[in-house]
Amino acid sequence: MAPIIEVKDLTKRYGGLVAVNDVSFDVQEHEILSIIGPNGAGKSTIFKLISSFVKPTQGRVTFRGKIISGLAPHVVARKGVVRTFQETTIFKGLTARDSVIVAHHLRSHASLPGFYLGTALARRDEAEFGHSSDEILEFLGLGEVRNEIASNLPQGHLRALGIAVGLAADPQVLLLDEPLGALDAKLRQGMQLELKRIQREVGITFVYVTHDQEEALTMSDRLAVFNQGRIEQLGTPVEVYEQPASDFVAGFIGISNLLERDGRHITVRPEKVRLLASGESPPPGSHAEQGRIDEVVYLGMLTRYVVALDGGGQLTAVRQNLDGYAADVAGDRGTTVTVAWPDLQSVEITHDQEEQA
Ligand SMILES: Nc1ncnc2c1ncn2[C@@H]1O[C@H](COP(=O)(O)OP(=O)(O)O)[C@@H](O)[C@H]1O
Ligand SMILES: [Mg+2]
Q: Does the model's pTM come out above 0.85?
């Protein structure tokens, strides 16, 4: 199937700084594609390039086969590529409900009007869009606060409203830049599932920017891991987690556990590593090593062990705290231990390190 968005050889320079460096990828219709990476990786710049808020230095973005880079952002938004707004001030004193109605009217948040014009527009379009706006607000759990002044709403509601405003613009592709960034963990987890549900039910495509690995794994059909303006790896959460293509990916998504063994550069995920009981022999088809437990961290659901290996390097292993297990772990620090993991779980990283330097 033809991609809904195609990013081709895209570069954005700010003076001598290369914010996005020759990046190409597709977004498929109806998927959630996440763009994840540390601060300064170029995530927001990619986002602004797709929504045409900045112009590329090189390369292009197409939407359903037509070039959109270079068009004015509100034109791109009208075509159906819409970004959610983060800035709280954009609502300029409008109620939550009026904000949604006005966003529908403008189909672009580039130019949400001030209070008086906004209110007038909302009254005018109330008959046309009032009902739908109530549905959208309801959908995002904002039914009760629809008549509150938007900028007075608490963070969680404000974030939800940013998304409601995006949806009101009737997008085919909704671009979300760290939409849940400021929320506390519990609220964020709830909203993540909510967003997935909305995306499924409305049947639109999401490009979702986040710096949070757990959020990316939760949200995405596929994720693109960015570092220094480039894509390090693009794949499904399972592919990226289980088969990291570089040290960077191995360390950014999950815990890296990088080891040099027999001239190979390998990584093994913590939950694949078992600490054997004394006298227990390693299961067939597994690789075993001796080490010393340096650190034991009790995390409730899990306990995390850091093991210094006699063969060099260290490994983090996690063990689920099943019945009766948690009580005796603290005593393990400093003891020698055999760790083992299935041979199949040694993932060799072949990515050329020099290339990234
Ligand atoms: N308007 C700008 N002018 C100059 N440099 C910028 C501008 N926008 C972003 N940058 C730089 O580009 C790099 C990527 O920024 P950004 O895309 O915002 O990263 P991220 O969203 O991943 O944190 C950073 O080094 C940032 O300082
Ligand atoms: Mg950013």
A: yes
